[in-house]
Design brief:
By secondary structure, the protein is an alpha/beta fold. Helix content is 33%, strand content 18%. It has 2 domains: 149 residues, Rossmann fold (3-Layer(aba) Sandwich), CATH 3.40.50; 108 residues, Rossmann fold, CATH 3.40.50.620.
C-alpha cells in the first residue's frame, strides 16, 4: 500500500530539507517528493495565498500524491488550515520558535507585509493525529529517523532460507507461523546447482512463489530474494533478532517435496 506522508508547518521549519534528505538517504525505497513551492510555479501557478487558494493548493497536491506511482510520497506544504491536513495517511508537523524561523529566512519571507502563515495570516493549531517534531532541537538526521520509524518505512522481516523445491502445504504452514502474528516475511531462495532433488532453478522457484503468494507480495507482507547457496548460518552475540525453529504438526510434517516430485515425474 502506498504511503503518503504529509509534512507540514510554517515557512523555514525544514520541510523541504528533511524530505530531500529522506529521498537521498533511501534511494531504494521508491520515494517521490511533491513540494508545494515547486508546484507554485507549475500545477498551482494560478493560485494566491487566500484561505480558499491555500486549501485548493493542498487539494491539487494531494491529487498528485494519490496518482503517483511511487511507493512512498512525501508531500511538503505549509498547510495552515486544519481542513487540509488529511492529505496523507501519515502526518508530520514541523515547528520551531518564530525567532529561529526568522534567523533561517534567506528569502525574506518573514519581512513581507501579508500572506505569511503564522504571522500575518492564520496557522491553525493542529488537531489531526500527527508526529510533532521541533526542528530547533532535532537535527535533519534525527527528524528523518523519527519519520522513518513513525511511518514504518523500514519494517523488520522474519527470514526463511531454503531451496523451496516444489511448493506445498508444509511451506504454507511454515510461513504462516509468522504471517499469522502480523509479521512480514523475507523468503530467501538458495541458488542451488541442478540435481535429482533440485529440478527447478532459483528463478523458477521465485516465479512459482510470485504466483502462489501474489496477494501477500503486493501487500508488502512477503518479499522474495535469491541468494547464493550456503553451507551454514552463523551468528554471534544477540544483535536484535531471534533464531526460531518451528515444529510442524504430524500431518504437515509428512508432506514432502521429494514425494511430490516423484509423483510428478511418474
Amino acid at each position: 500500500m502506498k504511503k503518503v506522508i504529509h509534512i507540514f508547518g510554517m515557512t523555514n521549519t525544514g520541510k523541504t530539507t528533511i524530505a530531500k534528505a529522506m529521498v537521498s538517504k533511501y534511494p531504494h525505497l521508491n520515494i517521490e517528493h511533491i513540494d508545494a513551492d515547486e508546484h507554485r510555479l507549475t500545477t498551482c501557478k494560478d493560485l494566491g495565498f487566500s484561505k480558499e487558494d491555500r486549501i485548493e493548493n493542498v487539494r491539487r497536491l494531494t491529487e498528485l500524491a494519490n496518482n503517483s506511482k511511487a511507493d512512498i510520497v512525501l508531500l511538503t506544504a505549509v498547510t495552515p488550515f486544519e481542513q487540509s491536513r488529511h492529505a496523507g495517511n501519515f502526518n508530520v508537523l514541523l515547528s520551531a520558535p518564530l525567532d529561529v524561523l526568522v534567523d533561517r529566512d534567506t528569502k525574506g519571507v518573514y519581512s513581507r507585509t501579508g500572506g505569511v502563515a503564522g504571522v500575518s495570516s492564520p496557522f491553525e493549531d493542529a488537531q489531526v493525529d500527527c508526529l510533532r517534531l521541533d526542528t530547533s532541537k532535532l537535527s535533519v538526521r534525527e527528524c528523518v529517523g523519527e519519520i522513518v520509524k513513525y511511518a514504518g518505512l523500514l519494517p523488520k522481516y522474519a527470514m526463511f532460507v531454503g531451496r523451496w523445491q516444489t511448493l506445498h502445504a508444509g511451506h504454507d504452514w511454515l510461513f504462516n507461523q509468522r504471517l499469522d502474528k502480523g509479521e512480514n516475511i523475507l523468503i530467501c531462495i538458495r541458488d542451488v546447482a541442478p540435481g535429482p532433488k533440485d529440478l527447478l532453478t532459483a528463478s523458477e522457484v521465485m516465479q512459482g512463489m510470485e504466483e502462489r503468494y501474489s496477494d501477500l507480495i503486493n501487500e508488502g507482507r512477503i518479499r522474495l530474494l535469491i541468494i547464493p547457496d550456503i553451507s551454514s548460518i552463523n551468528y554471534g552475540r544477540d544483535v536484535g533478532y531471534e533464531v526460531v525453529k518451528h515444529e510442524p504438526p504430524e500431518d504437515i510434517g509428512r508432506v514432502s517435496g521429494t514425494s511430490i516430485r516423484s509423483l510428478n515425474t511418474k
